């Protein structure tokens, strides 16, 4: 990231007027090269940076999955304050071998989906508001949808934590992880924090995230598709959907300018996500059919109890059911 920023600044001061943003296949990190450069001249450079970056990413990933496996014995050794709390502290009616704290039991001492919610989200509008409504994110027609999967160990079971523990994630869009005992009512929200929607993911939901400044027409199109495809959905804006600056071609005057570029439309399902700049119906339908209803409790259709900021409750798509018997029933 630092390399990217430095080279960007260098570029601004040293390079010719025309340049292009090059993306290594499968990567969302772009590199700026002069427009007239032959493509292969920069390949080695790009390859080197790409390898460095994926090495860093892998290290973060390893550290992340290591902490998922922290268990009681680690905690009792006092080594990791973020590990699963000792079962002995948890009231007996809430204990559960698999998750630490049982799911779906509303209890004010632990989680009743009403008390202490500010531990996960302080209620700030910055997480769901576009402060530059007249200046939306640039729509990058040239960016292909980027689908990535984390390698989640097959025997991984997410842990549940009461509201007196904070749960943090190493990545802005986690695809699995510890979460709260109570999960959200399926539907569209003004905002839902990941500590809630990750529970929906464990139950096979598809979660749609979008940046608050994403183009509203595209957001609307994707929402409609998701609602027509899968009953068990959660839809929420999130400022944690990453945006980055890069070069944008201004077609009429044929010049590249610095602007906000991104893939601000995201679908998340167990272990995988797809990030998109525009709505590609076929890719969305394929993603939902392949990835929904996965996860350790992927076929559980039980409705949730958390409903803070709920805007619209989900209804099964016509031709399907609350079990999502048919995913995207009205699409080929
Ligand atoms: C706790 O973690 C250790 C390694 O960190 C592992 O060997 C052990 O099986 C784990 N215990 C339980 C109960 O998960
Ligand atoms: C958090 O709440 C649970 C359930 O009431 C309790 O057992 C636990 O001791 C509390 N932990 C802390 C750090 O207060
Ligand atoms: C809300 O936005 C702030 C500022 O970007 C960020 O630090 C915080 O993690 C966000 N909260 C959630 C729940 O996404
Ligand atoms: C919760 C979690 O995964 N934390 C890890 C995030 O990454 C750093 C290192 O990059 C680790 O030290 C944390 O344990």
TrEMBL record:
Any one GO cellular component localisation term in the record: cytoplasm
Annotated signal sequence range: 1-19
Pfam families assigned to the protein according to its UniProt record, in alphabetical order: DUF3105 (PF11303)
UniProt KW keywords: Signal
Domain of life per record: Eukaryota
InterPro entries: DUF3105
Protein name: Tumor protein p53-inducible protein 13
Source organism: Armadillidium nasatum
């Amino acid at each position: 990231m630092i390399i990217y920023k430095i080279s960007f600044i260098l570029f601004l001061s040293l390079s010719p007027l025309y340049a292009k943003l090059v993306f290594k296949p499968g990567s969302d990190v772009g590199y700026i090269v002069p427009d007239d450069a032959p493509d292969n001249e920069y390949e080695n450079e790009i390859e080197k940076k790409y390898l460095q970056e994926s090495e860093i990413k892998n290290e973060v990933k390893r550290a992340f999955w290591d902490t998922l496996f922290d268990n009681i014995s680690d905690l009792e050794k006092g080594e990791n304050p973020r590990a699963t709390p000792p079962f002995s502290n948890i009231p007996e009616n809430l204990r559960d071998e698999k998750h630490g704290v049982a799911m779906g039991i509303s209890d004010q001492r632990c989680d009743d989906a009403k008390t202490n919610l500010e531990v996960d989200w302080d209620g700030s509008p910055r997480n769901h508001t576009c402060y530059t409504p007249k200046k939306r994110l640039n729509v990058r027609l040239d960016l292909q949808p980027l689908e990535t999967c984390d390698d989640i160990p097959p025997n991984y079971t997410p842990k549940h934590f009461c509201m007196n523990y904070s749960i943090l994630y190493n990545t802005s869009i986690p695809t699995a992880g510890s979460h709260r005992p109570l999960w959200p009512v399926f539907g569209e929200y003004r905002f839902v924090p990941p500590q809630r929607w990750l529970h929906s993911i464990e139950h096979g939901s598809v979660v749609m995230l979008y940046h608050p400044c994403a183009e509203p027409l595209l957001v609307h199109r994707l929402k409609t598709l998701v609602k027509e495809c899968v009953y068990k959905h959660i839809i929420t804006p999130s400022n944690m959907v990453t945006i980055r600056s890069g070069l944008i071609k201004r077609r009429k005057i044929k010049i590249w300018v610095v602007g906000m570029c991104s893939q601000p439309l995201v679908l998340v399902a167990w272990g995988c996500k797809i990030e998109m700049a525009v709505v590609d119906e076929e890719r969305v339908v394929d993603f939902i059919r392949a990835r929904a209803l996965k996860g350790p409790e992927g076929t559980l259709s039980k409705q949730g109890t958390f409903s803070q900021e709920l805007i619209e409750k989900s209804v099964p798509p016509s031709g399907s059911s609350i079990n999502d018997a048919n995913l995207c029933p009205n699409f080929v």
